[in-house]
């Protein structure tokens, strides 16, 4: 099974030795992704915009690997405070409302204080079409 490494161009990938995504056979694993705007290297203040940015980065990584958001089967959301659920819910519904992947949401600290949301996904492409 061929293994393909996908980069989003983030300087953090080289610094910390990881790939944004790894595609292997019918699977694509996307690393935990925060809401940085990599063009501006800035983090939006709102959790909603952070979630939207993270999902856009994830969508781009999946597309580069030949996958679509509709093939996401598993999501892990990490938020820094329980009350952020309501703020990010519209972005999550927009991305996954019809896909309905299995999901887990945890509350935990992230590596930088401005980070409020991190999203990790796994996609699977069924060989039957």
From TrEMBL:
Xref: SUPFAM superfamilies: YjgF-like (SSF55298)
Protein name: RidA family protein
Pfam families xrefs: Ribonuc_L-PSP
